Structures are given as structure tokens and as C-alpha cells.
């Protein structure tokens, strides 16, 4: 082989031509006009149809970079899907920053105006959820690279996504040695009675025996003391204490207008068209005493009542548990009798409550299958009344009573959809509605106390009842009514918060942020107007007690959930970064919790202005507004130099004024007022000291 052959020329490579900026700009213009192949197709040597975006880039999922952009070279970049993990993590961080900025803007707007900022309209708030697809493994994608939780607001030295707070709740010891547990989501109000009932309340006054029949009063004492005394009181005696029909209808209407929003045992047509006519048959004169058997066999769910004339038809009496349901309905109806004074409505409602409890006890654990729905109704109403009363253990009684109602409902198969058993349509809708009332109330009580619920939705396939209040929007979309909204929030908001925050294993912060996103995506139906105007909507709507209570209750579903969700991380931010909580890795929770607390207080003040007679009787006013007041008060007390301390102090003052007006209504409100007054004094001193130090520093600064 000749030597010259070994020195043959290697194939020459085409030299890259260096283009001037003018030439590059000209190429870019031609690509935008579709005259040249796009940059990504040219890089990959693919056939380009020169459209914008081209079909090749659209098929590969990278139309956003066509026609002038290219993906970075390297293995795995031939398809854009290979880079989605990093892209989604970036979108998630940007969404977190947007949420933090929205919270900051809302806080600032609330300090200068009562109107919503134009940038916080519902349609604009949904933009950040458009393409966010975040999962619980984002912390692994980010590795050890520090990242910003809220953009310029705070920078963490290390990722907070994988951080957990080992907060497993509070275990209290009572005066008599009883122990009670309150989980991570429990509100501050749950500790009021435990810590302060002996020092802030007057001795309990005995109930007025004149308002309750002696037999019933004696039974109530035996029941409370845990003794088993055989009482001679029969259903006949209980029926003898029914009110006149006109008063019964008044109490029933009061229940439908107010208390049914919290627990609707039956619809209005069933109560007025079926139940009340059963108790007040038209063939019997209400002015004359009814002839009732001296005793009723409790092994049967109903009995026959003889009439005055032998030839008349027999009338069927309700089961004892249906009678208990009616008496508890009367108790809640009289409790919300806005025309009665505090002393009158409390004593009358207590009378109906004791009568209902007596009617409930004989069959409470051995109800016949035919009366299972009546048992669930009665237990749910009893628990609802307990949550309204101001007794020491009322909240625990409500939680236990609703849990028992849930177990009875599960025992009768209400958690499975009744359509599976081919029941008639009326029964299907009735069982669905009753189940979701029990489920919603059980979850609500569990969230407030931080305790596990009796119902896990993984075992439930019961569908929502038909939304009879649904309407159509201007665009033709279906708008859900109040009851569907209530059940939807319980299923998609409260339940995930419980399963996440109350689990034995503490959740990571990335899980909390993901729940925050899901809750913000839920919005109230357009038909609800929590902040109506007296001048625009008129006095009939503005001062309507039913609408005021319904709108306020509906507005609290999202804000209260946000407060429960972020409260632990809010406290951590305050404890670890008191000088500037915005520098905490949990600054997002700090802003979210404060914003939710501020909204709760302002909504309660607006509610009081609309209907002041209802506010002192609503149980969640004490629970949620007190917790919100403690949240804003903590901001001022521990971080008086914070940029939101001034507005937080104003919110605390509004909450204090509200509880001062409601202090005479119940012991819980009096305790809350006393505690908030002390907190307000400490907050005032802390903020005044900060202002004084600021002025002194300014005076000694050299000019």
C-alpha cells in the first residue's frame, strides 16, 4: 500500500457560518411569516410544514417554542414530555407565589377599602390553576437546590416541601381528672372552658323546674348523673305536652328558616304535610284532651290512638323516635325564636329538649329497622342542639351524638346508594339527603375538635340528592344550590383536610400547599351574596334573618377550612420568625391564615349588622370568630413591627366589639370576650411600644 494512501484526506466538515445580528433577525422574521422551517424542526432535521406552530411541534407538545425557540440539546429532549417534571415543579412554585401575592394584596385592600380589588375577581383568581399539575414528589425533583416559596417575599435556605411539623394535638386534664384530646385542627375556643370556666363564669344556675314537667326534669337529672332509674313516664305523658298546633307550626317554621341550615332532618313539605298532621289529626279537636293509651309497647314503632267516637277511624301515633325528632325540632325552633328574649327562648327550648331526650332513650340502642331513619334524625337534631347550648360539655356531647347518628346510619346501610336496592324515588332522595346531612355534620364537628370522624368516605358511594335549588347561569351552565354546595364542600374540602391534618403521620408541607390549591379552586355559587348592600338590595333582603344566616354560613366554608389547614404552620412561622414571619419557610401559611382570619371577622361583623338577633345563638360564631381573633391578635402581640400589624389590630378590635355585644347571650361568649379583652390590652401595649421605639430611633438618627 503506498504511503500516500494512508494520508488520504478525511471527509471535510462543513464550517458553521457565523451570522450577524441583522441576519439572525431576518431569519427570525421569515420563520414568523412561515417562509422558513422552524428552529426546532431544523435542529432535529424534521420535515416542517412552516405553519405557526407547525404540526411537528404540535404533535410533540412543544408548540409554545415554535417557530423560533429550540429545546436544549441532549438525551431525552426529542420529546417535550421528558422535561415535564421540571416544568410542572416550576409552575407549582409560580402558583404558590401567585397565591401569596394574592393574599398580600387582599390584606392590603382590606385595610383601605371594603370593596374587592379588581385583580381579585373570581375569574382572575382561577388563572393560576390552569395548567398546575403538582404531585407530592416535587421535593425529590428539586433535590438539594434551595428554592423560593413566595418569590421575593421569602427565600428558604432549604426546601420546605418535605418539612413536617410534629404537632400531635393537646391533651387536657379537667378538674375531676377527666382527660380530653384536641387535635391539630382544633380551634382555640376548645380550650376556653377547660382553662377558664372556673374563673370567668358565675356558678351554674339550676334549671327552672317550672318550665319542664317534673317527671321529665327528674329523668334529666337521673340521666345526667348516670343512674339507671325506672321512670313511669310514658309516651302518653310526652304527647300530653305537645303545644297547640299554631305554636307548633311557628316553631317548625323557625327551625326550617334557621336551624335546618346546620342539620336538615326533613324537608319542609315532609314536616308540615306528613309529620305535624300525624300529631294533630284534624278529626280531633285540639281544645279537648286526646284519649291516649296509658302505656305503649316500645317493641313496636307505632301504635293506634282511639278517638272520642267509637265509629271514627283510628289514628296512627308516631314512633317514639319520630316524637323525639319533633321535640328536638321544637327545641331548635324555639332557640331561634327571634321575638323571644334570651331567658324565654333558652328555658322553652330546654323544655322541648328534655322531652325529646326522654322520647329517645327507650329505643336508642334497639330501634326497629322501620324507625332507623327516625333514630338518625333524632340523634342528629339532639347533637345540633347541644352544639348551640352554652353548657360545659356541650361540644363533646354534640360530637358524640353525631358520631352515634353516623353509626346508626351506617348500620341501616345509608352509606351505600339506595338506588342499588331499587327503592322508590322518594325513599332514595330522602335517604340520600339524610345521609349527607349526617356525614357533613360529623365531619364539621371533627374538624372543629381535631378528632377523627366516624365516617371515612372511601366506604361511601351514596350519591348526592337531587339539587332542587339548581339554576342556570347566563352562559347556560348549571349553578348549584345551597344544599349541594354544603355537601360538596364537606366531601371535597373538609374531608381531605381531616384525612391529611389529623393522620398519625404528620403531612409534609407540599401536601398542605396542594390542599390549599384545591380549596381555592372551590368557589361559592354566583347566586350567593355574603356581602349584600342595604341600599342596593333593599331592607327586605338585607335584614332577612334566613338569608343573612345562610349567606354567612356559606361564606365560611372556604375561609374556615383555610384557617384550620394553615394554623399549625402559621404558629410555627410566628414562633421561629417573630421579627418578620415573612422570612419563614411557611410564609405562605402565615399570609393565608391571616387573610382567612381577617375575612371571618369582617364577615361576622357584617352578619351582625344584618341580623343582630341571630348572631348570639349561632355556635360557630364563638368557635371560628374567636379562633380568627386569636390569630390576628397573635400577629400584633408577637410581631408589632410587621407590615400588617396595624390592620391586624383593627381586626382584633372589631372582634372584641362583636363579642362585647354578644357577651350576655351565653357563658362561652362571656369567656371569649374576657380572653380577647386581655389579648387586646397586650396587643395595644406591644404596638404602642413599637411605635415609641420607632419614634425614638428616628429622633436620634443624625441628619
TrEMBL record:
Regions annotated as coiled coil: none
Cited PROSITE patterns: 4FE4S_FER_2, ZN2_CY6_FUNGAL_1, ZN2_CY6_FUNGAL_2
UniProt KW keywords: Metal-binding, Nucleus
Pfam families named among the record's database cross-references: Fungal_trans
Domain of life: Eukaryota
Biased composition (Low complexity): 1-10
UniProt keyword annotation of Nucleus present: yes
Residue segments, region Disordered: 1-25
Protein name in the entry: Fungal-specific transcription factor domain-containing protein
Compartment(s) of residence: Nucleus
